[in-house]
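Form 12-C: Joint structure prediction
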Amino acid sequence: MKPMHPLLTVAAAGLAALLLADSATSQRPRRRPDGAPPGAPTPEAPPPAEAKPEPKVESWTAIQGGDVYLGDGTILRRATVLIGDDKIRGVGHDLQIPEGAHIVDATGKVVSPGFCIVHASGFGAPRSGNDVRDGLNPFDPQIKMGLAAGITSFLWTSSGGSDKPGGKSCVVKLAFGDLEGMVGPEDTVVSMRVPLNVQQMRAFRELVRQAREHQQKLRELEGKEGTKPPKAPNGTEELLAIMDGRKTLWISGQPSFGGRFGGGGGPSEGFGVDQIRQAMEIAELVGQGVVLDVPVAAWVIPDEIAATGSMVIDDPRSRTEPIPGREATTGSNIAQAAILAEVGVPVAVTTGGGGFGGPSIGTGGILGQDLNTPTVDACYAVRGGLPNRRAIRTLALDAARIMGAEARIGSLQEGRDADVLILDGDPLHYKTFVEIAFVNGKLVYEKDREPFYRHVQR
Amino acid sequence: MNRTSERLALRTSLLGAVLLLATPAAQAQDAPLALVNARILTMVPEQGAIERGTIVVRDGRIEALGADVRVPPGAEVVDVAGGTVMPGLVHVWSKAGTQVEQSGPELPADLPERFRRRFGGGGGGGGARPVAQAAKQIAPSIYARQDVFRDLLAKGVTTLIVRPDAPGFPGLAARLDPGATTDAGLTLDAEAYVVVQPDTNTAVGKVLKENFEKAQKVVAERKAPPPAEPKPEEKPAEPKEGGEQPKPPAEGEQPKETPKEGEQQPEPPKPAEARQQPAPKKDPNVEVLADLLEGKRRAFVELSSGTDLLHYRYALKDLKDLSFPMTVIADAADPSSGRLDEIADQLRALNAIVLLEPSLQTVPFTQTLVNVPQRLHAAGLEIGFVLDDSPRQLGDLWFELMELVRCGLPADVALAACTRVPAKAAGLDAEVGTLATGKRADLLVFSGDPLDPTSRLVTVYCAGRAVPKDTTR
Amino acid sequence: MTMFRGTPPSEYQVAIFGPDHVDSPGYAFRAARVLPVEGEPIENGVVLTRDGRIVAVGPAASTAIPAGFEPVDLGDAWCVPGLIDLHCHIASASSDINDSVFQANPEMRTLDLVTMDHEKLRNALAGGVTTVMYIPGSGANVGGFGTLTKTWGRNPGEALIRFPGCVKIAQGNNPTRRSGDLGATHLGMNENLRRALQRGRRYHEEWVRFERGEGPRPEHRPDLEYLRGLFRYEYPVCAHSQYFQVSGVTLRMLRDEFDLWLVIVHGTFDAFRLAEEALERGVPVCTGPREYWVDPGDGRFWGIAESWYAGGLLGWDTPVRGLGVDGIGINTDSPVVAQEQLTLQAAMAVRLGLPDGVALRALTINPARFVAVEHRIGSLEIGKDADLAFFSGDPLDPRSHVAMTVVNGHIAYRRDPRRPRF
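Section 2 - Result
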């Protein structure tokens, strides 16, 4: 018999970290068009835990004895996650547990970072607007339902750019009952779409040129006292933020038809190779990797995508049939996430929009096709060949990167937000339930206290 | 027979009112009134029902009440026949008469504004544009003898305070005499309380913060006047006298002064001295808020849900030591935005009376009912009810109370929540809300227990006078 | 449960069947684990097939592979019987399945629409689905007659198992008339359905009298002919029925009143509270495409399949009996849930409490039995159709992929790891 969960049955005697070959830091090659090293602060590597002033912590929680999924594909067997107030203060085996810490026994359980959802709406967040706080409802019961699904944060977006970057965004955290706790990093993401026509592309290049010129001026002024820095040319603010690495650019393509309704597809390529290549051109122009927002045929040119340091949001179940005769370069591929991950491209998963099973949560969907079980989409990425252990990244570290927020969320590391799940099994197994969820270090969900799943016992 | 005499009495007083114009109706008083053989619910805390008691009313006030009170000679005696007498309803959060009624040919005077409210955009929450007009009185815009006042009175509302409605600081609420027959006699207090209407959007939050901030500055200046100016402002001339509670009027029904005549301009009344020297221009709206922060006024703050409270606190989080006499109004409960019982601790920290809807709520996704008033009461909060403006729905109040009581709310708490507690919230507890010697004789006579579904509201006495039965509908 | 299927006819008069078997080469499929469904799991097993049928099933160590059988080694894969979906709309390149001008259309049939070798069926194969009941939509109370067909064949005739596979009766809200016609409410819909069935029964009875020599030969009525087969128990009613009240009507009308062979399909909402009523009437249930019901009373996510299966309190004060191991099936209503995600529906049912073993039966032998083709499909037994699905692991786990699908002894799908279909 082939064991169902080989990872869980591995004898955990030594309790050492099982490090993957493709661990978080060795990931994501970044090549700049000019061959120069990345100038902007690359947000991927968490700052090493260097000496810093001891944080003054009011309350400590130690989750002990569980198998700890760090979110980057690493698992620590029977380790401890130490939470101090709203942050993670340590993860490991030999942590000093402060006196008076609240101890949570997670023996036999799995501890994982809360899931980060790149496409979602609801959860008390307003439908649109300039400020996510407008109408934000921290008591929205949907938040509890999201927590039951393991979701602790998602990217709220409002409008978006078309032929140049734009739009408002905010990482919304499912901090039930806590208004300020719900508002995570703001405006980490701007978006635009391809294809651009010749004229639009020319205008975009011109904008990039102005932005570069402005950057040059700033550099010349560096160190000179008393000079007022020049104002950025009109319309370059978002570009400059992208070029400086302060914001992440998401690029979506022309939508294709088909989706999950049993295929069908159309003659359209959707966000196919040509459009992806244009997005890559944009990445080269701005000198930063971009995020391809649900491309259809990124699997055809994984190396080109990897070369720009770009990332991909994948919807493994949505289906675009290839154009007859062009099967090798058109159409979707459930192996896309696996193929991209193989060459080091970070991938997040999403569940398809439109019709049944759009990216939402609630009581009206079809279990398995909506955010009530976001892990299912990661499962389908595994079905397409993504290594099981790595698949957690599609909902954790890589998803957080794609949201431009990995300094805060997506992994269990010292200094990150204490968004922690305790699960009753492998996070991606279909029988697994979230038993407890912490957001910002606060206990916000307990399976046994909420009506949804407390009757399911095994 | 009795009925006719009541009518007559009313007609005479009406005539008198017309003749004397500004003189309130309760002036010319007739013989004392004695309600005998009554079960009296005084609503005084800790005081149970007085069985087979008597209430003596003279000049609109309760002269005596108790089980062994003697009926004074010459009194008109009404045998209640074992029925229950309780204080009149205290309706302190009303919009009755403030909106032009739907029927009738007149066009709403505020049409453009209403249009803007309905169709104007705005952030996720709310929609209407926030205002900062804390000093704006609603009283001048209301006229007397509207059907709704008469109907509310007939349903037992003997104390009525109407309020402006807009996000931010829409102005000052007005205590009205629902039985008034002239515009001049309508307003008993044009500055009953300051209305604060937070919202879940940042635009309103900004207005709240900025204006409270200004008010805090004014308070600081009042305490330590800038040295440059020699004694610029004397306290005594504030619109409201003295520091403490908004006055129990010394004498009967009389409004302190007949409310200002020349009410054309929306400008609120200014302290008399304000115009004398060209002192730095004062914003009356900020002055009102400064009074509030000094405890000279009270505010009713509309916070219907946990989310409302969070947004309110978020908006004001940077203001240090912001506190003022406050009543929480929860008139638009939304169980999906956090029920008040879920934030009972935070409410308690506000140290405020909470006036909420007298109804059960449903837990989201379920049909589980929650008795929020009961839970808040159990959590140690003082709760009262916001009442309906529609006379028809107000008639259902008693059934709503019965439901709440059946689900665990103590009956005396339920009844006090419509009488004593809102009176206290509005600072009127010295005058109305309970039955005691010297209080206004606002009485509801029921054929049995008010919370018995077979009981009828037999008679309403407002300031000692029987309110004519509603004959029109 | 003891299922009611009527007294089986000695000879079929209305239904037609596809070929008994088709020619196929000899294969010896080896897999790490073979789940025959009827019978214990076999570690490192082989399944021998030839001429469209299973020739042998057993452990690799003790099962001799005769000459002429090509070995096909599936490595670590698990072998299960090809999966069966009794409620789907995808066996045609066309999506033209709702003709709802009339409330009852007993003359309509999907048989003529069936085509092979199109994307929808290829996707079904990539999900391990080898047999589907291809039915009309739910736009009318009697949508027409469904076709029980394999998902692969060189032509529709070869793929056919039986026509009619069933009659599609839809209740609930879908068939509600749009204008003011009779049938704008459940009152009219029930009346219409009842009349249609009465017409069919009278026609059937005329034939019975004629066959007994008690009456004249009835005029042949093409519009009632298929209903006649229904009353002869040649095939069942598959009733799209999902709410408590609606399914109550379904059970009473179709079982008590017309005494028909009945299968409830598309059992998605709170009809599970009728588990005991269905059990007593011998009516099995296929659930899906939703596998949960959020109780408006207490907010819990009921597992629908689990509730039908196990019974229990189901919101009532006294426990009701459930349908048990044999009474539950799972369907997708594809394309509402993509056909290739049939196993996901089962996984979600298991997530909410259905035992794994029951879930696998609900995808294979149970639906086969519901429509009386368990002698052909639904388990790995000698003599049955060689319909096999090879999963890379636990077939219910969405992480497992289908490595190969075999229909009638032919390899109908083989996964290309670089460009897998699913």
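Section 3 - Comments
The CA atoms of residues 7 and 468 of chain B lie 7 Å apart. The longest helix of chain B spans residues 202-223.
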